[in-house]
Design goal:
Elements: H1 2-17, H2 22-30, H3 40-57, H4 59-66, H5 68-87, H6 92-120, H7 123-149, H8 154-174, H9 176-181, H10 196-200, H11 205-232, H12 238-244, H13 246-262, H14 268-287, H15 292-306, H16 309-321, H17 326-354, H18 360-384
Helix pairs in contact: 1-7, 1-8, 2-7, 2-11, 2-12, 3-6, 3-17, 4-6, 5-6, 5-8, 6-16, 6-17, 7-8, 7-12, 7-13, 7-16, 11-12, 11-16, 11-17, 11-18, 13-15, 14-15, 14-16, 14-18
Length: 385
């Protein structure tokens, strides 16, 4: 039963990644038809991220009341409905409306599954599970690119991913007894959930929240704007850029597959620090005038550097801040991450609209410096206490 449940969680992570790159990949073909400016993708992301922040902060309460199985199934169902809604949109306001259930569904399931894995499985599983997310996230842009290359409408890409989510919802509902039979007991004990103020007072949490904010800001900014950067600054065709934008997610997927083996020798902290260095190399490849091939390799390197950071920080949370507080801390970490999604990619959209989209690598470099600094500060605070 335990192995079957783990296989289901792996499948869930693939499915969770599928929609994440769709908006960035399809946006060059979408915004003109919807009568929206190129920067409007940021508005949609703000709405999605606001929903994920809210549901992440509620994740501990939902988890204690419903358990991880029901939270996961209901959240995926909400996401599936939102994706099918996206496929029917003919204007920007409709896209914004369907972004609400998408965000609400994504936040709670993310926090729930990550905490469950951090508590019950080894670090290698956390990396490999997020590798599965990377496979899903890299497949999403390629599905959209294939649809567009074949002459199809962008809405077809959303429909295909929505159908996959519907199938996963059915599987999750049928598998609810597996969660009850698993070794899930520490999270459902009778206790009061921690408040946001209580969580923020835990030594090191504030700095880690800011570091995680920066990590997800990096990931989502690249995911949202890489395609537009390749089209508007590098001069690529939209359908080609939609596929090449997936190189970033391929880097994440490959990096997390390898990272699962590296966890056998290196600590979560060392792997996170190595990720910072690889991201720096990727940004340099995109920033320097080395040609389009170097820029594409740079996108892959940024993804490769991102690979260990997310799973390593999450997996180390119970050890750094206490197993009994991990769901609350991870919920707030997710909220901080989605706040990064909410603020930083749209902010770059404004910069691209008013100045130049060519500033993307410099923007990423500033975020990286803050991310690495706050991570080291959080580690010092944890060691002091």
């Amino acid at each position: 039963m335990v192995h079957l449940l783990l296989a289901l969680i792996y499948l869930s992570f693939i499915s969770l990644g599928l929609p994440d790159g769709l908006l960035g990949a399809g946006w060059p073909s979408m915004y003109g038809e919807l009568g929206a400016p190129v920067s409007a993708a940021g508005m949609v992301f703000i709405i999605i991220s606001a929903g994920t922040v809210a549901s992440s902060l509620l994740s501990e309460r939902l988890n204690l009341k419903l358990g991880p199985g029901k939270v996961t199934a209901f959240s995926v169902a909400m996401t599936a409905a939102a994706l099918m809604g996206f496929s029917s949109c003919t204007s920007l306001w409709q896209l914004c409306l369907w972004a609400i259930p998408y965000g609400l569904g994504a936040g709670s399931v993310d926090a729930c599954l990550n905490n469950y894995v951090a508590l019950h499985y080894a670090s290698r599983h956390m990396s490999w599970l997020h590798c599965m997310w990377g496979i899903g996230a890299s497949a999403g842009p390629y599905i959209m690119g294939a649809v567009l290359t074949a002459g199809g409408h962008w809405s077809r890409g959303y429909q295909l991913i929505g159908l996959i989510q519907i199938v996963l919802t059915a599987v999750l509902l049928l598998s609810l007894p597996l969660w009850k039979k698993s070794a899930y007991n520490t999270e459902t004990e009778s206790r009061e959930p921690l408040s946001l103020r209580q969580v923020s007072r835990i030594p090191g949490v504030k700095a880690m929240l800011l570091s995680f904010f920066c990590y997800c800001a990096t990931e989502q900014t690249v995911g949202l704007w890489a395609g537009s950067y390749l089209v508007l600054h590098r001069g690529m065709a939209p359908e080609l850029a939609a596929s090449f934008a997936g190189l970033f997610y391929m880097g994440i997927a490959l990096g997390r597959a390898l990272n699962g083996f590296f966890t056998l020798k290196f600590s979560d902290t060392r792997l996170t620090q190595a990720g910072f260095g690889i991201i720096l190399l990727g940004i340099a490849a995109v920033l320097l005038p080395l040609g389009d091939i170097a820029a594409l390799i740079g996108l892959g390197l940024i993804g490769l550097g991102c690979a260990p950071i997310y799973p390593s920080i999450i997996h180390a949370t119970p050890e750094r801040f206490g197993a009994e507080r991990s769901q609350a801390v991870i919920g707030v970490l997710m909220a901080s991450a989605y706040l990064g999604n909410c603020l930083m990619p749209p902010l770059f959209g404004l910069i691209a609209n008013r100045i130049s989209i060519s500033l993307l690598p410099l923007y990423l470099l500033l975020i990286l410096v803050l991310m690495a600094s706050m991570h080291e500060l959080a580690l010092r605070r944890c060691r002091e206490h």
